[in-house]
Amino acid sequence: MRSTRFALLLFLLITCGAAGAQDQQYRVEYRAYAKAVEEGDAAAAQKHAHAAWLSSEEKLGDDRLTAILAFNYGQQALFTDSENAKVAFRRASELQAAGVAELPSKELDLYVAYTELVTGKNSGRNARELREALDEIDAEDLDLGSDFAVMRLALATFDFIGKRYREAIESAIKAETAIRATAPNDYRSLATAMIVKGAAHVIPHPRQVEQILDAHIEFDRARRLFPPQESIDEFDFLLAQALAWNAAADAALKNLGKSELPNHVDRHRQAASGGKRPPLFAKKDEPEGGCGEVQWQTRQPPKYPRDALHSGYIGAVLVGFDLGDDLEPRNIKILAEVPARRFSDAALEAVEDWRADSLPNDHPACRRNRIANIKFVIEN
Question: How far apart are CA 334 and CA 321, in angstroms?
Fold first, then answer.
């Protein structure tokens, strides 16, 4: 992530005798840091970068090498210890403002803005400062590698948490672009950007049908990124979120009086999000011809939680379960819930009372790893 120009300057200052004797502790620590980087030991690199900075503070005080070592350590700790990285970047910024150092100003502004947001208040102001700093990096076409994508995605997440939904969509779009450019195989980060984008389409009022359809596309795109799962016991949390949000989008559509997607819209959604959906589970244990759908003898809908009903909440719960010899659900698991802490108890109580009538194939593998989306809808 560090620019070549400043990595070279730091190396020359340390190795060519910037100040004091050759055995100054900050030099010793910097060399240990460089060795750890070469060996791929990130934890050791961060430890020695921190020690080099602190030693420089003690021996040199307000010095350009102190600023560079603070900047260097802040980059190392940016995502693993953002609180201490913020302290380092603030110190580097202080020396920059005093004219002691000449650090890359746009990168420094970005790191300060990022650490202020993720360690402080999720305010519109902090988010705006990070957004502006990221856009400055974009405009200058500066290469920060995958770290830039991480910060874009963090901004999208903080925008969503802060209920800045329009900004969350914009941030998620830019995050996806950055991830594809720097870490295209990072499907979990890509899925997170898509889920944030889709959820930010679903939540705001008044809801619009087109926004919900856009959300469906994002959740479908996210689902397609994941490999088949081994079991409900190891089901990927992000994939479960995509499925639950997709069901919540269905609930939102029904809330608007639309019982299902028109055929032409569904075809458009499938094409936009990647065609045929892959299987959710690995099929290695299933019999030839597959398992088919469960036919239910008893499957009553859940009771709508009173507080959710009075508050106007709609949502969905993704439930995983196995079927026992009596065809009743066993090993019931809440895989995801949207919104959080609203509907899982009601969903669990409902599934516990279900009973299957028959299975198209009674192979043992067909009793395992069943899932159901339970939707909570207030129909208008």
Answer: 9
DSSP-derived 3-state class of residue 260: coil
Mean pLDDT of 28-56: 95
Q: Which domains does the chain have, with CATH numbers?
A: 1-100 (no CATH), 104-190 (no CATH), 295-376 (3.30.2420.10)
Q: Is the pLDDT score of 379 beyond 80?
A: no
φ, ψ of residue 353 to 5 degrees: the values are -100, 0
Beta bridge partners of 318: 336, 373
Does 360 have pLDDT greater than 70? Answer: yes
pLDDT at 230: 94
b/e 340-358 (16+ beta carbons within 10 angstroms → b): eebbbebbbebbeebebee
Q: When comparing pLDDT for 193 and 340, which is higher?
A: 193
Is the pLDDT confidence value at 301 over 60? Answer: yes
DSSP 91-138: HHHHHHHTTS----HHHHHHHHHHHHHHHS---HHHHHHHHHHHHHHH
Q: CB within 8 A of 95, min separation 6: which ones?
A: 62, 63, 64, 66, 67, 70, 101
